Amino acid sequence: MNVFDEILQPTVVNKCLHGNFTSAEREEYVVARTNVLSVFRVSRAQKLVLAYEWKLAGKIIDMQLLPQIGSPLKMLAILSSKSKVSLVRFDPVAESLETLSLHYYHDKFVNLSTSSLKTESIMAVDPLFRCLLVFNEDVLAILPLKLNTEDMEIDEDENGIKEPMAKRLKRNQGITSDSIIMPISSLHKSLKHVYDIKWLNNFSKPTVGILYQPVLAWCGNEKVLGNTMRYMVLSLDVEDEKTTVIAELADLPNDLHTLVPLKRGYVLIGVNELLYISASGALQSCIRLNTFATSSINTRITDNSDMNIFLSKSSIYFYKALKRHDLLILIDENCRMYNIITESEGNLLTKFDCVQVPIVNEIFKNSRLPLSVCGDLNLETGRVLIGFLSGDAMFLQLKNLKVAFAAKRQLVETVDDDDDEYSALYGESQNNTHTRIVETQEPFDISLLDSIFNIGPLTSLTIGKVASVEPTIQRLPNPNKDEFSIVATSGVGRGSHLTALHSTVQPHIEQALKFTSATRIWNLKIKGKDKYLVTTDADKEKSDVYQIDRNFEPFRAQDFRKDSRTIGMETMDDDKRILQVTSGGLYLFDVDFKRLARLTIDIEIVHACIIDPYILFTDARGNIKIYQLDSKNKKKFIKFKLPEALNEIIITSGSIFKSNICNKFLHGLENSSQEQLLFTFVTGDNQVIFFTEKHNDRIFQLNGVDQLEDMLFISTYQIPEEMNPDPSIKQIMLNRLGHHKKEEFLTILTFGGEIYQYKKSTKHSGKLLKCKSHPLITGAPNNAYPQGVNKIERVAHYFPNYNGYSVVFITGQVPYIIIKEDNSVCRIFRMTNIPIVTMARWGKNSVMCVDNIKNARVMKLDPECYYGNTQILRKIIIEDVVEEFETLGNIAYHERTGMYIISYTKFIEYQALSEDGEPLVGYDPSKPNSTGYKSGLLLINPLTWNIIDRLDLSENSMVNDIKTMLIQLNSKTRRKRELVIIGSSFVKEEDQPSTGCLLVLDITEVVAEPGKPDSNFKFKQLFEEEIRGSVNAVCEISGRFMIGQSSKALVRDMQEDNSAVPVAFLDMPVFITDAKSFSNLMIIGDSMQGFTFVGFDAEPYRMIVLGKSTSKFQVMNLEFLVNNGNINFIVTDRQNHLHVLRYAPDEANSLSGQRLVHCNSFNMFTTNNYMKLVRKHVEFGSKTSNYIALGCQTDGSIFRMIPLNEASYRRFYLVQQQLLDHEIPLAGFNTKMERLDNEYYHKGHSLRPTLDSQVLKKYIHLPITKRTTIENRVGRHASTELWHDLIDIEFSLRSLTNSN
Amino acid sequence: MSIVHPDTSKYEFNFEPFLRKEYSFSLDPDRPVCQYYNSREGIKSCPNGARCPNKHVLPIFQNKIVCKHWLRGLCKKNDQCEYLHEYNLRKMPECVFFTKNGYCTQSPECQYLHVDHKSQLEECEDYNMGFCPSGPACTKKHVKKVLCPRYLVGFCPLGKDCDWSHPKFKVPSEHSKLRIKKDEHINTRKMDEERERRLNAIINGDILVT
Question: PROSITE patterns of this UniProt entry (chain B)?
Answer without folding.
Answer: ZF_C3H1
